[in-house]
Amino acid sequence: MAIIAGTADFDVARRSDFPLTLTFRDGNSNLIDLTGYTVDAEVYSITSDGFRDTKYADWSITYTNRTGGVVDIALTDTQTATFNKHELKYDVQLTQPNGEKFQYLRGTLFINEGYSE
Question: For residue 12, which of 43, 39, 41, 40 has the smallest C-alpha distance?
Fold first, then answer.
């Protein structure tokens, strides 16, 4: 199953938790049964020429409903406190039971200064 990555951008307040619920679907909008699959997600900066530079965080992953394709991913307030750039990139990777890896979702995190420390 080939997957074409979706794109979504988000505003994130520094020093705040940032959770997302993802529902995995194939190209025909059918739910993907995630039994045997692995989901990974990272936050990173990029260089001026578009290459990965510094990894800032790994999202925590909770398989909320594997057969229904639902996964919760989250960044903690401690992790977002280290986000010292205005824009960071993220991606979510899906590894199939056969080992094939596909980028499922990617985008930009726009970092806003939080009000509390």
Answer: 43
